[in-house]
Specification:
Shape of chain A: elongated
Radius of gyration of chain B: 20 Å
Strand content of chain B: under 5%
Helix content of chain B: over 70%
Radius of gyration of chain A: 25 Å
Keywords (chain A): Cell membrane, Membrane, Transmembrane, Transmembrane helix
Protein name (chain A): Cytochrome oxidase subunit III
Largest sheet of chain B: none
Distance between the termini of chain B: 55 Å
Structural class of chain A: mainly alpha
Distance between the termini of chain A: 81 Å
Main location (chain A): membrane
CATH superfamily of chain A: Cytochrome c oxidase, subunit III, four-helix bundle
Order of helices and strands of chain B: HHH
Number of domains of chain B: 2
CATH topology of chain A: Four Helix Bundle (Hemerythrin (Met), subunit A)
Number of strands of chain B: 0
Oligomer: heterodimer
Helix content of chain A: 55-70%
CATH class of chain A: Mainly Alpha
Strand order of the largest sheet of chain A: 1-2
Number of domains of chain A: 1
CATH architecture of chain A: Up-down Bundle
GO cellular component, one term (chain A): plasma membrane
Pfam families (chain A): COX3
Shape of chain B: flat
Chain lengths: 257, 109
């Protein structure tokens, strides 16, 4: 009686070779490498988190009354209505007391867009296996990322300490600045959402800067050159652009609208 | 797209010239749209129309960042759709919850 073997005999030498067949792991879904694909799906899930934040902002903002010049007179802060962003974010470092509506946010936006450009330049240099250019552009990106974080630290500090005038609260006392329970700008949730949304974005920028520092060290050590490709720079680049993308939305929904 | 093609194979040690025209073009588009947003902040009164303009301009900016900088435009169709369809559902979530917020507002005031 002869037996028919259904298991395929694989010789030892074949096991050493990379698998190339369609059904044994040789194919890359969507023609993207494992790492890049997973980065895309991670970013998709991260986009859900940020969308949850911004959607919450939308719901809560519409739940409160909007400031109406015809009824409420000249604009002033009050817990009765949602503040106008250009009246809250109008300070600029070194220009104490002057009204620069959204000026500092515009600068921060420019810094982040610029860092995105230097990041693509690093990725492009990686495609050409140009180690020196990768190092140069990664350093610029780290510099812009760190500048953005410092700007955000200044903005938070200003937001927390508030203006000299402050706002008269319901119990008749004057309150300056903001914390999670009280703020001079408007409803409690306005400051809470500011802290959570810009804070969560800032945390992402911080992680991005750490990853870029790792990338710079690995590039300098020649890790990627030995590996034969700079895909790590590309993957971290995807993350970095995503952080810039989130800022574009935060900028519109928190500062402009 | 030709300008996204990987570098041509060269002799060992030779580094091809950078191809960065498209990067700066995208950068100027992003800066231009941001500048335009500021023009609307200062020259137009707040309202639904202005907010709609902001949202449309934001989507334009998002398109340029995702398509060019993140290279999604040059990926396979399957990857593009698997990212875009879940994102499109979020627009539904946003519209639903803003409507909910308006309903709470009307119930309170």
């Amino acid at each position: 009686m002869s037996t028919i073997s259904t298991t395929q005999v694989i010789s030892d030498s074949a096991l050493d070779k990379p698998r190339t067949g369609t059904w044994d792991g040789g194919n890359e879904p969507f023609n993207a490498s494992y790492g890049k694909l997973m980065m895309w799906f991670f970013l998709l899930s991260d986009a859900f988190t940020f969308a949850a934040f911004l959607t919450t902002y939308g719901l809560i903002r519409h739940r409160y009354a909007a400031y109406d010049p015809a009824v409420n007179g000249a604009f002033h802060f009050s817990t009765k209505w949602w503040p106008i962003p250009d009246k809250v974010f109008n300070a600029f470092p070194g220009l104490h007391g002057s009204d620069v509506p959204l000026g500092f946010v515009a600068l921060m936006t420019m810094i982040l867009i610029f860092s995105s450009v230097t990041m693509v330049l690093a990725v492009e240099a990686g495609h050409r296996m140009d180690k020196k250019d990768v190092q140069k552009w990664l350093l610029w990106t780290i510099l812009f990322g760190a500048t953005f974080l410092s700007s955000q630290a200044w903005e938070w500090s200003h937001f927390i300490h508030g203006t000299e005038e402050g706002t008269v609260m319901n119990d008749g006392t004057v309150f300056h600045g903001a914390n999670l329970a009280m703020n001079q700008y408007g409803p409690v949730l306005f400051a809470d959402l500011f802290f959570f949304i810009t804070g969560f974005h800032g945390t992402h920028v911080f992680s991005g800067v750490c990853l870029l520092v790792y990338c710079f060290i690995a590039t300098t050590n020649g890790t990627f050159e030995k590996r034969g490709h700079y895909e790590m720079v590309e993957k971290i680049g995807l993350y970095w652009h995503f952080v810039d993308l989130v800022w574009v939305f935060v900028f519109t929904f928190f500062y402009l609208v | 797209m030709a300008n996204h093609a990987p570098a041509q194979p060269t002799h060992a040690g030779e580094i091809p010239k950078p191809n960065v025209g498209w990067i700066w073009k995208t950068f100027f588009v992003l800066v231009g749209i941001t500048a335009l947003e500021f023009v609307f902040v200062f020259l137009m009164d707040a309202g639904t129309l202005r907010n709609s303009i902001f949202i449309i301009l934001t989507i334009f900016k998002a398109f340029f960042i995702v398509a060019e900088f993140m290279h999604l435009k040059h990926e396979t169709k399957g990857l593009i759709w698997s990212i875009m369809i879940p994102m499109a559902l979020l627009i539904w979530l946003l519209v639903a919850l803003v409507t909910e917020g308006n309903a709470i507002h009307n119930a309170l005031y």
